[in-house]
Amino acid sequence: MMEVLFLLLLTLFSIHMIVPPPAAAAAHTDSIYTSCSRTRFNPGTVYESNVNSALTSLVNSANSVNFNKFKTSLPGSTEPDVVYSLYQCRGDLSVPDCRTCVAAAVSRLGSLCQDTSGGSLQLEGCLVRYDNVSFLGAAEDAVSLQKCGPTASSGDVVTGREAVLTYLTEGGQYFRVGGYGRVQGMAQCTQDVDPQKCQDCLRKAIDGLGSTCGSASWGYVYLSKCYARFSERGFSTKSGKPPFPRLARWSSSASTVCGFLFILGFL
Known about the structure:
It is a single-pass type I membrane protein. The structure is a single chain. The chain is of the alpha+beta class. It has six helices and ten strands. A five-stranded antiparallel β-sheet has the order 1-4-5-3-2. Strands 6-9-10-8-7 form a five-stranded antiparallel β-sheet. The longest helix has 18 residues, at 95-112. Mean pLDDT is 80; it is low at 1-25 and 234-267.
């Protein structure tokens, strides 16, 4: 009997090891939105050199930290030539993933906002932005993108959404995640703003989610300096990918271990 149960457990663990993890979230380099300045600069100018230097600094910095900001002014620059820039990676990204995301954003900005004096690209895992007008530290809450999904499948999702959004509102960090039942939520500010400006920005984003996407199964609001989003767990976009990583991925492993311990106790 002991031998049979041991073989059964070994089989279960082997199956668990080869089963792939839950579907990964949308790749952190998937595009969310792009915004380009209407003003342009002439190629070969000092401003172009400052833009290239600033964007290179963003990618290099992402090798070690998930946020940084720069004021770039190469020799020979005048005040109109100064470039202000930042990048902000999602709080749960590893350093290698952060750098990959920032590098992808910088590369795309070069073509999407070619020769424009400013540009902003929000990817799934990071934001990259530059401009010739300083925005660093400023409180900006203009809506960049807002979208709601289809109606939720049950009232439990609406209840979970309300609980998650309340939790995200009350959190005090720049990056916040939480889950309730089948609903997950995420919110983040760019770290160039102080905590109070972050809180004000997130409150506006979260209030917008609650009022605009009240009965939806998922929704997101991106403002200039922050975003908030929620989703019914397991929801997939039209591309077949969840809108962001599932929380508590350890649950399936934990259940397997608990089952193993229960059987040992029974023996």
